[in-house]
Amino acid sequence: MIKLKNIDKYYDAKFQRTFILKGVDLDVKQGEFVTIMGPSGAGKSTLLNIIGLLDEPNAGDYYFLDEPAHKIKEKQKVQYHRSHIGFIFQAFHLIDELNVYENIETPLVYRGVKGKERKAMVADLLDRFNMVAKKDLFPNQLSGGQQQLVGIARAIIGNPKLLLADEPTGNLHSEQGEMIMRLLKKLNEEGMTIIQVTHNEDFAQYGTRIVKLVDGLIEEDLPVQ
Length: 225
Ligand code: ADP
Ligand code: ADP
Prior knowledge:
Layout: E1 2-12, E2 17-28, E3 33-37, H1 44-51, E4 59-64, E5 67-68, H2 74-83, E6 85-89, H3 100-110, H4 115-128, H5 144-156, E7 162-166, H6 174-189, E8 193-197, H7 201-204, E9 209-214, E10 217-223
Parallel strand pairs: 3-8, 3-9, 6-7, 7-8
Antiparallel strand pairs: 1-2, 1-4, 4-5, 9-10
Keywords: ATP-binding, Nucleotide-binding, Translocase, Transport
GO molecular function, one term: transmembrane transporter activity
Protein name: ABC transporter ATP-binding protein
């Protein structure tokens, strides 16, 4: 599903080049739940952004769904983001002025899904996530865990093939973090491919594989026992 071959990412300053990723090779198959770990500054977010077509490598080959990423045009990328890739973030990134219902509905509006169908899709997810009673509330009226639930609902409403999660539990207390991890595990068991970044050793165990990134290099790549 995802294949990175010898990926470099660097930034050039006047007299020096700083490497963020150095020759990264990574293969992710459909149905995997990969956790990327490693110290701060190791390049984890950069790697996730490249995988999610939000950033581009300076060298190497990246194939997304067998498509060479450098051949995917900017316009097409928007389509990819709408239909193939869901993102969730540590800081949730919900729209404060929209209520729960509207936050979840937003991607469908952009995709041009008709009103009736939108309603059914949002209602279905609200139900699955036990959020029906919260649908009229605004993000600042929710706990962090509930906000992340909304973030996940919004990310998966278009039924993406891939869910990318950049420290999804980083702002949550451990109980709420566990709730979110159980949900991610369930989504994975239902078939969604997930790649998450986390610093939490316990939460890494919810996935199927742990990739350790240090100084832009993959130092370890092991299945979860
Ligand atoms: P991680 O997610 O593992 O903490 P990041 O991918 O966020 O690491 O960043 C890796 C390194 O790249 C950091 O040292 C960061 O300062 C650097 N970096 C990120 N973006 C830029 C940029 N636009 N210019 C220069 N350095 C950058
Ligand atoms: P109608 O009155 O036509 O039956 P609704 O009142 O159910 O329609 O909502 C129509 C639109 O209102 C939705 O598509 C949605 O964009 C918006 N809306 C905003 N907040 C909510 C909410 N909490 N529950 C339902 N719809 C909402």
